[in-house]
Batch of 2 targets.
Target 1
Amino acid sequence: MHLQVVDHPLVAHKLTLLRQDTTDSPTFRRLADELVTLLAYEATRDVRVEPLPIRTPVAETTGVHLRHPRPLVVPILRAGLGMLDGMTRLLPTAEVGFLGMVRDETTLKASTYANRLPEDLSGRQVYMLDPMLATGGTLAAAIQFAFDRGADDVTAICLLAAPEGLAAVEQAFGPQAPVTIVVAGVDERLNELGYIVPGLGDAGDRLYGVV
Ligand code: URA
């Protein structure tokens, strides 16, 4: 597993605003969207491309375009939906699949309640969107789901991670696994309710309200 913490003043600035409890939902959604686009720029550094011969107004040359099969973007419902527009703005030709994961608030264990993903993910680069990497249970289950369908490379984009969650994902797949986690920040710890500290609270509630 490879961890990439995006160290950039604009990322830190937007993350600070996101964390503040006075930030309302519309502002939170906008900031999350902007932050994801910055993280996506780093996360797609190894997106697969192939040469494309083109003609400019001046000469012939060779550029690149995204290789087929196209990357697959998978927001993990519900909070991952708040990251989708920011990601597809950068990768407009990516396909989008959906994975609904819910965690039992007592056991903190994740289970799948919905999936809309291609049956065969072989040869696909998969980008998972999940704002909070807390215990790691949800993300590990989602990554396993993609590997079971043949994905050979999974990158997870998260706003924040807890050390416990990073360790759980690393333990689930091992240090050499083709898994990359891209985050805006790694916080101190989880509290007894499974929230990231200092964190930003419940990302789903802050994006969409308490429903
Ligand atoms: N999920 C959240 O939305 N926030 C946390 O702090 C942990 C898990």
Target 2
Amino acid sequence: MAKLLIAGGRHPLQGTIKISGAKNAAVAIIPAAILTSAPVRIENLPEINDIQALVEILEFLGVHAQWESPSTLSVDASTLDKWEPPYELVKKLRASYYLIGALVGRFGRAEVPVPGGCDLGPRPIDQHIKGLTALGAKVEVEHGIIKVEAKKLIGANIYLDIVSVGATINIMLAAVRAKGKTVIENAAKEPEIVDVANFLNAMGAQIRGAGTDVIKITGVSELGPVNHSVIPDRIEAGTYMIAAAATAGNVLLCDVIPKHIDPIVAKLREMGVTVDVADDQVRVIGCHLPQAVDIKTFPYPGFPTDLQSLAMVLLTQANGSSIITENVFEGRFKHVDELKRMGARIKVEGRTAIIEGCSQLSGAPVRATDLRAGAAFVVAGMLAEGETVISDIGHIYRGYEKICSKLNSLGANITEID
Ligand code: UD1
């Protein structure tokens, strides 16, 4: 299994990079494509392993999928004839749970193994099940397989007990072709949800309110062809913004939607980092000693949990102590032990981490404990003295397109080794 070797030294990152399409929108839009048997064309897909895995799953199910370019996929789901994706493929990514909503929306049945993905502590899917059940589906979990059957899906009022991105999208997928009106209350408001709704509406769905906490869906009997371009990845953008700030660099990011990165821009400015925002670009100019700040993760538009581990690395370089409170996932501090092995001084108490600043990190072998933690170790490796070797890098490639060449084009020194 390959590893990443990162030469440290805190060399300032300099230059320009382009942000790819949003992973968390793309992994929902690809399953959504099977809701129609008309031709679907999706542009600006990120070149990442999660997308490759989803395309393999679709092909297994009988869909004809063809790459027109590395980022443009055409999908013809008229030949779809299976509703039981295999465990070997489904376990590769968390987002395979979207196959449930999409298959039930198309066929009235799905048998999907409980999905894999990052280990962020307990990740129940009770809200997905609650939504599907409210729409009239019978849901059973047997031998690790989620079995869903519905003679006819009927629109319903669904109040989510917890704000969940996955449950909001999954219910939307199942409800677009249901009979009558569905209302999702306490819905998640992430930009990726809006992108999925825009994709479905362009196919003829009737979804209103995506991006607010009440989403109203009027079911339609059929969906038609669509050509859609995926929004830019705000988490990838945030990752490189933090990397630029941490190395006291000067980096221009192109192809961003500034509104989507507001919480990151605000935090970096609070730390004394210069962030200039224009149209679809953002420039980050780091400072040598950023100020310590406190960060609380929340669903959008709060500070994203997906950038928590990266922000933690930046805060090890800050002037003073900072507190991070993780409000979204119960077990999302698994990266802390690895960062401590690199010399970071961090204390975790429950959902809170106290990070002492001005730490000289030193290169060490570390294991990518999850996708975003893997990216955090890449940044930590660039700040450290000496070399860092990251193992289990499959996690990183699940979600970051060409991370090594993008960072190397800015002056980093990262190589893949066997
Ligand atoms: C999605 C993102 C992930 C991001 C997360 C939060 C994708 C593919 N992944 O994950 O990158 O970190 O949103 O922004 O888009 N929960 C329940 N019951 C449920 C569903 C969720 O208790 O049925 C809990 C979770 O355990 C978690 C919280 O709700 O504590 C939020 O989870 P959710 O928004 O569903 O995250 P994911 O969709 O898994």
